[in-house]
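Field reference: "sequence" (input) and "structure" (output). Example, Ras-related GTP-binding protein:
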Amino acid sequence: VPSACEEELLSCCGVSFSGDLPNPSGCRPVPHALVLDFNDPFSTEVKPRILLMGLRRSGKSSIQKVVFHKMSPNETLFLESTNKICREDVSNSSFVNFQIWDFPGQIDFFDPTFDYEMIFRGTGALIFVIDSQDDYMEALARLHLTVTRAYKVNPDINFEIFIHKVDGLSDDHKIETQRDIHQRANDDLADAGLEKIHLSFYLTSIYDHSIFEAFSKVVQKLIPQLPTLENLLNIFISNSGIEKAFLFDVVSKIYIATDSTPVDMQTYELCCDMIDVVIDISCIYGLKDDGTGTPYDKESMAIIKLNNTTVLYLKEVTKFLALVCFVREESFERKGLIDYNFHCFRKAIQEVFEVRMKVVRSRKHQSHARKDKRPTANGTSRLPL
């Protein structure tokens, strides 16, 4: 469970939770009527949904708690099995802005009384979690049924398969399990004549950073500005002598963009550790004597020199985002040039934010206008007076 300071940071960055944080099993049940209220196309464009699905005890709720609630992986051992649909809004910024729906493993949303079409129609990504340490034949059957039904309703859904709990497997067993699940899942689709459905597979565990990296890849697919952000990062590093740069959401440690060079897992882990250090130190020493203030603000920055002649450089971009760079010591001697280029980069990011917010406001205005024009019971339109 986050400390009081960390909880304040989560709150000020706009993360809203289902239930109270100290209660690990606290979930806000979603009424059946609310589940079916997906008729507004503009709302789904503004805030896409991510569905967490899978069999019981596959680790869905643990993933959600670790990534978005800063819960310790060991504490997830005491989580109760989810028995209601839980919804969580993640609204850290204009880029990280979506809803997560956690579906209990035992729920049969293909029951005739359950309108599953309305659920899939507004979904951006469907994450199906498979327990790699269990017999996954039943999970594969459920995966096939879910994917085929969802694709018929919404062909634009991104299907993401988390092969979870791989921390208990050897490296050879991990590779073999991924190959077997990948082969069987795609063979089932081919037999059904649905080869055009693309499934993405990830090896994940809550005991390392693999779950954060996998969620990063999922979220990036839901960010329409991703090509612009990647291009800005490429320009920034090429003109600053930087080897690698990540644009991080400081709350969840999801990186929403990086440059075009390959991502190394160890590099990503170092970035996550650096963000933890900055936030923890700021929570202890960065607040005023009366405890007021924000642990992460526009003055936040950090420099860490590693023992391999590499420098880690963190700078605040917005109150939600941080830029973490890997720089050689000889290149970091031109820190003034890096800071000037960073100033230009941050200005460009703010312009992208402004464009995004204009689009959001325009869509909300159109949505309200459409609702106002709906006919009332006596047949007249609901036009504003």
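Residues 8-46 have pLDDT under 50 and may be disordered.
The first strand starts at residue 49 and ends at 54.
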